[in-house]
Specification:
This protein has four helices and twelve strands, in the order H-E-H-E-E-E-E-E-E-E-E-H-E-H-E-E. It has 175 residues and is of the alpha+beta class. The strands form three sheets. It has a seven-stranded mixed β-sheet. It is elongated and about 85 Å long.
């Protein structure tokens, strides 16, 4: 490219700036199309440590360890732990659940909690409040992990998450 002095130089600078802008736009489009970030939750570490698919969230500066349960329809939170959380009571009717012991428990109430993951993604979840202290103590003794609740298929369906046990991730199929 031959550089001319005077008016020709100004035109060449404008053309060069135009090329830079076009290349920048193409780079941004390429990144958006081919490097699309899919929000994923890894449970590889929890599987390695405990053998359980657990996702940790935050609420009110407290960790909330939730077990992913594809066999459970509703999300549940331990009544012993809600005192640490920010939540809103709902007027939704509660259900009864058959637990791991075969005993039927009736939910105390349904609350709405907002769980945060990695400071950038929030999830608004309705959870049935049940006393899971005995069951979660047994899990802690057997697996070495403290659970605070269970994410059922209601969470997976609402947020369009799919569980991939081969890669040990839950990811949003809609993003």
């Amino acid at each position: 490219m031959r550089i001319l002095v005077g008016v020709g130089l100004a035109q060449q600078v404008i053309k060069l700036l135009g090329c830079i802008v076009i290349l920048t736009i193409l780079a941004i489009l390429y990144t958006m199309i081919f490097n699309k970030k899919i929000k994923r939750f890894s449970f590889r570490e929890s599987m390695a440590l405990s053998g359980l698919p657990i996702i940790s969230f935050e609420n009110n500066n407290h960790w909330v360890n939730m077990l992913l349960d594809t066999g459970g329809t509703d999300s549940i939170i331990d009544s012993n732990y809600i005192k640490y959380l920010e939540y809103t009571d709902t007027d939704k009717p509660t259900s009864s659940f058959v637990g791991t012991t075969g005993k039927t428990d009736i939910g105390q109430k349904i609350i709405n909690i907002i769980l945060t993951k990695d400071d950038d993604k929030t999830f608004n979840i309705d959870c049935t409040v049940i006393n899971l202290g005995e069951a979660f103590t047994a899990i802690k003794e057997s697996y070495g992990v403290q659970l605070h609740g269970i994410l059922g298929t209601d969470f997976l369906d609402k947020y369009k998450y799919v569980i991939d046990f081969e890669k040990m991730i839950a990811y949003n199929k809609a993003e």
